[in-house]
Amino acid sequence: MGSKDKISLEIKEILDLNRTNLEQYYVEPFVGGANMIDKMRGNRIAGDNNKYLIALWKGLQCDLSRPKEITKQMYDNAKNDFDNNTNNFYNNFLIGWIGFIASFNGKFFNGYAQNEKRDYINESIRNVEAQIKLLKDVNFYACNYQNLTIPKKSIIYCDIPYKNTTKYKIDTFNYNLFYDWAEQKSDRGQKIFISEYWMPADRFIKVWTKQVNCGMVAGSPQDKIECLFVPKKQKIKQNATLF
Q1: Is the pTM of this model over 0.85?
Q2: C-alpha distances in angstroms, 43 versus 25, 118, 131, 133, 158?
């Protein structure tokens, strides 16, 4: 669940500027941790290829019961279910809850987040539960981005797995196929915005950039230049103060 919290408000300003009104659907085919869509309003659709993630968000919308203390044994049992595509220990909602909440950096089954000096699991629970009231009316769908039904004239924001940096947990990611899909959506009258570090310059243009501190101190080698791209032929409104 790669968080967009550090830059979400700036991206939101660009999206809002290009959104006709709140009746126009705002769509995220790669919703992840929902750190962008929880700041948008009006008609909203969210999709993700991880069925456990979508089960998690839909379950939280319904306030399903979930454990506030997650032991290593619970974590191992949930991972066993995930690895074997079973529900021997938990249903999909609880596999999602345990797999994201109890993992380091909120990355699905990225290792049990246990630390004597810091309660990562409790922090994750507080952060995620604070989002619930902001996501009550979002329509969540578990599917590949290509199979997500997107209404005509929607505005689409894609936080795709970054090339050469992000491993797609559920499946491999075909970037050329995504580039084709994004251009097709734009050609059909939908406005599409994509977060990435790099995209092919002959097909997409960069409309916003910002250096984001990913390390312990500013200017560290871990800092990244976050960028927002659109298909080359797509016309957008730009706020000069953002560029």
Answers
A1: yes
A2: 5, 38, 17, 15, 17
**What whole-number distance in Å separates Cα of residue 231 and Cα of residue 203?**
6
Q: pLDDT tens digits for 20-36? A: 999 999 999 999 999 99
Domain ranges of the chain: 1-49+144-243, 51-142
Which class in CATH covers the domain with range 1-49+144-243? alpha beta
Residue type, 206: K
Q: Which amino acid is residue 146, in one-letter code?
A: Q
Give me the sheet containing 155-159, strands edge to edge: 139-142, 44-48, 26-28, 155-159, 191-196, 224-231, 204-212
Element housing 26 (H / E): strand 26-28
Partners of residue 206 on adjacent β-strands: 229
- CA 2 → CA 21, 181, 208, distances in Å? 28, 22, 19
DSSP-based three-state secondary structure for 150: coil
Strand pairing partners for 193?
157
Q: How far apart are CA 8 and CA 219, in angstroms?
A: 21
